[in-house]
Amino acid sequence: MNPTDNLLIKNVRPVDARNDGSHIVDLRIKQGVISEIEPGLEASGEEKVFDAKGAYVSAGWFDMHVHLREPGFEHKETIETGCRAAAAGGFTGVACMPNTNPPIHTRDVVSYVLKQAAGQPVEVFPIGTVTKNREGKSLAEMADMKEGGAVAFSDDGDPVQDSKLMRIALEYSAMLGVPVINHEEDLPLSRPGHMHEGKISTRLGLVGTPSIAEEIMIARDIMLAELTGGHIHVAHISTRNGVDLVRQAKKKGIKVTTEVCPHHFHLTDEEIERQHFDTNWKMHPPLRTADDVEAMIEGLADDTIDVICTDHAPHSVDEKEVEFIYAPNGIIGLETAWSIICMQLLHPGKLSLQKAVYKLTDAPRSILHLPVPKMETGEKANLTLFNTDEEWVCRREGIQSKSKNTPYLDHRLKGRAVAIYNNGLFTVEQK
Fold first, then answer.
1. Same domain for 388 and 247?
2. Shortest CA distance to 24 belongs to which of 37, 34, 35, 33?
3. pTM of the model
């Protein structure tokens, strides 16, 4: 990919804490740094002039919960293809989960991920495991991995079931100044659930995962965070009571943050029946009820939920095209996330444009203690260009991810990323 160190972007609408996207400017980049933000700028020897035609521009979006699958599961996704999908979805940075093979449980695997991601327009930040081999038996080398570049710790895909081990992990997190991200699931209560436990699962004859399996673990982790002073980050929250637990903990001043995925503020368990057991609707936490969906939106609006992430989870066709109970959990989400945000939050007036952008830019980076890009002259250019009203259809051939497991295949969506600029590279979404 050829660098575009010098670029003039015409007719963009800035969105950040000070700008609500209501005015149009031009933005000049010289040697990868923002040099001017003014209306009516003229070209001055730039390698490229891009007319954004009134699109919005913000600091580059960041997804703090993706699965890039490399090393070990390159048939699902690689770091390169995952970065392509992220760029297509408008993300200039991602944090990747450690359930790879081998897991990201030692400094050398952290280094491998960073090396593979070098030179991409999307920055990749590895999340290390809490326990060795993600087995939940003994702590991984957390301090050494942090020194090597890990930005958080998680056994994602599996919870840290042992409460004593989680207590020690949170004590380490307090010392290291990084969050522990837990997949909140009480395993004896939840497994082998294949969807949300409720009237739909009963009617379909599927073993369900009850909401309380998530909520019990959230409550435990909040109490341990209060005890230790560590920072617990609740991964992909999905239940109303879970949101209420986080809300109460924040009022008490406990170090707890959380995230939600677009599918959990859009889809419900009724889709499993409606879609005739299509495994692209199978994920974990599972799709829950309409009341839970409403609770996710309420939590975003009142800032109980800090971050919007995707839990981008690629799986190959042969893995997903099996009976529902045998299919792995997870869907890809990087390329459709913004559309669901527009359709579910922005257009109905549930969330302002500024707040939605904040939950994709400042909030995730702040939780991971990463520098937050600024749209100001003299700052390194790290930008996302996007619109909120472009209609498009998610076609298999247009998906940049190596895997195609999305419930939005062939669906008409609204709102789209236009381009990203980062690390001196300008990447325009292919229509």
1. no
2. 37
3. 0.97
